[in-house]
Automatic annotation (TrEMBL):
It holds the Pfam family PNP_UDP_1. One of its GO terms (biological process) is nucleoside metabolic process. It comes from the Eukaryota. It comes from Macleaya cordata (Five-seeded plume-poppy). InterPro entries: MTAN, Nucleoside_phosphorylase_d, Nucleoside_phosphorylase_sf. Residues 26-254 form the Nucleoside phosphorylase domain. One of its GO terms (molecular function) is methylthioadenosine nucleosidase activity. This is Nucleoside phosphorylase domain.
Length: 265
């Protein structure tokens, strides 16, 4: 069996190498909130797609169009059918990422959105970062090995040429399902050495890694977690203005990607 297994491994490596040399054609941009998504929908002149790409009954929304030479898909998890609020958090993010990969077969995923930042790590309101590492901070499983599984720390897809060209900041991202920060979360975020805190990134990273799709994480800082201002109040106050900074950064990234292969990022 060993030679057969070796042959499969070599074939898979060859397929990956060939994929990295093909021009990027299809991009999926996963965005949690409509406020964050619509400026980019308008920027790229996308239209809401009503084809049954996703299962019947889900609130997920796909905006689609051609921008330059790229097939752009912005996927927004939609609004909760009962409460009418954006479907934020790791569960919707995981589901739409999985469904989008299965349905659209993207060459690249971009998870774009807002995040909290830590001034102790140099983050300021309106800063835009590319995440170099992602991890969870609220999956506490104090059993050997399961603890590492809970944190699920991983490096993100490396984009050295993009970072050099666009001069974007780089920082580690920690993900959890709460907007506030409990003492337990704070200790875990510190252990993750995170500059940023969000509610989707590590979930998108998990699915992208599982299905072997490169993923980039672009996060704009709406609130400073380690100051004395209420997080929710600061987030809402800065959301619209910071979304403009996010819009600009994502556009620059997409412009940079246009005409390139995965290996050139």
């Amino acid at each position: 069996m060993a030679p057969h297994d070796d042959g499969i491994e070599v074939a898979e490596e060859t397929m990956v190498a060939e994929a990295e040399k093909r021009p990027i054609v299809t991009i999926v941009i996963v965005i949690a909130m409509q406020t964050e998504a619509l400026p980019l929908v308008n920027k790229f002149k996308l239209s809401e797609n009503h084809d049954p790409v996703f299962p019947k009954g889900v609130p997920w929304v796909r905006y689609h169009g051609i921008y330059k030479d790229l097939n752009i898909n912005i996927i927004w998890p939609g609004k909760d059918s009962v409460l009418g609020v954006d479907c934020v958090g790791t569960v919707p993010a995981s589901l739409v990422t999985y469904a989008s990969i299965q349905a659209l077969q993207p060459d690249l995923i971009i998870n774009a959105g807002t995040a909290g930042g830590f001034k102790a790590k140099g983050a300021c309101i309106g800063d835009v970062f590319v995440a170099c590492d992602v991890a969870f901070h609220d999956r506490r499983i104090p059993i050997p090995v399961f603890d590492l599984y809970g944190i699920c720390a991983r490096r993100t897809f490396s984009t050295p040429n993009m970072l050099k060209e666009l001069k974007l900041k780089v920082g580690k991202l920690s993900t959890g399902d709460s907007l506030d920060m409990s003492p337990h979360d704070e200790a875990s975020i510190t252990a993750n050495d995170a500059t940023l805190k969000d509610m989707e990134g590590a979930a998108v990273a998990y699915v992208a890694d599982l299905l072997s799709v490169p993923a980039i994480f672009i996060k704009a800082v709406t609130d400073i977690v380690d100051d004395d201002k209420p997080t929710a109040e600061e987030f809402l106050q800065n959301l619209v203005a910071v979304t403009a900074a996010l819009d600009q950064a994502v556009t620059q990234v997409v412009d940079f990607i246009s005409g390139k292969c995965i290996s050139e990022l």
